[in-house]
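Quick illustration, no need to memorize.
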Amino acid sequence: MSSHIPEPPPSAAHVKADNASLGELLGDVTRDLSTLMRQEVDLAKTELKQTATRAGKGSGMLAGAGIGGHFVLLFLSLALMFALGAVMPLGWSALVTAVVWAIIAAVLASMGRKELKQIKGLPQTGETLSEIPPTLKPGEVNR
């Protein structure tokens, strides 16, 4: 007794594959890929817009924090000036406060200059580019 299981009816994709030409099938694949690429680009645009919105909000908040920090330093400087003004003339206390800030600015500028001098550009990229054989470099004619 052989048990013969009937085959299921062919799906629409099988029928189309059996009856369509190679050109039609390639056209379908191309159209589907085009649709997929458009959808991916639309998704990327949406994600980029959301990221840019968040970055803008975050930047604005950091800018506000920077302004707040500036006012903190300003009022702390005024407090130092008036505290020193209790033991010396107010003009001299303002000058002492300004000298303190000048020293802080000079130290920060010196440290920043030292950091900038240590920048070596793109050392790894320069090294790997120097290893490219001359025949492969664009724009050069070697005969």
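The radius of gyration is 36 Å.
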